[in-house]
Amino acid sequence: MAGVLTIGEFSRLSHLSVRTLRRYHEAELLVPATIDGATGYRYYRPEQIPTAQVIHRLRELDVPLADVRRILRTPDTGARATLVAEHLTRLESELERTRAAVTSLRRLLQPEPAPVEVELRAVPPITVAAVEGDVSRDDVLAWYAGAMAELDAVVPEPTGAPGGLYDNALFEEGRGHLLVYVPTERPPSVGRVRAVTLPGVELAVATHVGEHHDIDVTYGEVGSWVVTNALAVSGPVHERYLVGPRDTPDPGEWRTEIGWPVFRVDASSGEPDGR
């Protein structure tokens, strides 16, 4: 037939296998220009080559077949670009999670990981400007960002590093009480921001270096130190953000203190020392 390509010719020109082209036809992604009624042979037109290449690129990006079909059938170029951009955003998020998991695994699988430095610290009571609420674990990052934005807006000159208190239920049950704060001499009362007095507490403190994707590893190291030193955990976990993305874009400079509220245990009985 004049002006058309056999499936083999189209395969070579588009760099798609005959099997793939047949599958795309069955999925109604790339329908041949004509099909011989007697032989069933498929024939394509040269102008279909760019469409085949677009499908190939989208599938390389793991775009589901249903989404590929929707993109191809969207006549508006702006709408098509939006659909592709949404998928690319999802891919970037997945890639970031994969990188974070790889970094954590490398740290965990080191033959002799560097021991974490932990100190016992008595923290006196302090009055702070705070935002608090019950939060799902999946929503912690978004909730934290919103709460800190409110605090930054009404406390322009804090007297110390911001921090947070994370209820045990947040880790154990997936939902719990969360409080974020900034120290200030005169805590305002605006919107969700309120003055809160944090009680004095004794903490086992370690500093996590870098991004938070493997902060659970540092948590585990602090917990091991606490158990080894015959201490028991009591109360919410404390975090202080000494240096973070609000201070520098370089993750290597970020420093987060993790503080576990502790009390000494009587080694002979295994019960809290009430003296």
Please tag this protein with its features.
single chain; alpha+beta; Multidrug-efflux Transporter Regulator, Chain: A, Domain 2; Multidrug-efflux Transporter 1 Regulator Bmrr, Chain A; nine-stranded antiparallel beta sheet; three-stranded antiparallel beta sheet; 8 helices; 37% helix; disordered C terminus
Task: Give a structural overview.
There is one protein chain. The chain is α+β, with helices and mostly antiparallel strands and 275 residues long. The protein has two domains: 5-73, Orthogonal Bundle (Multidrug-efflux Transporter Regulator, Chain: A, Domain 2); 119-264, Regulatory factor, effector binding domain (Multidrug-efflux Transporter 1 Regulator Bmrr, Chain A, Alpha-Beta Barrel), CATH 3.20.80. It is built from eight helices and twelve strands. The chain has helices at residues 7-14, 18-26, 49-60, 65-72, 77-108, 140-154, 168-172, 215-228; strands at 5-6, 34-35, 42-44, 119-123, 126-136, 163-166, 175-183, 194-198, 201-209, 231-233, 237-243, 255-264. A hairpin with a 6-residue loop joins strand 2 (34-35) and strand 3 (42-44). It is elongated. It starts with a strand and ends in an 11-residue tail after the last strand.
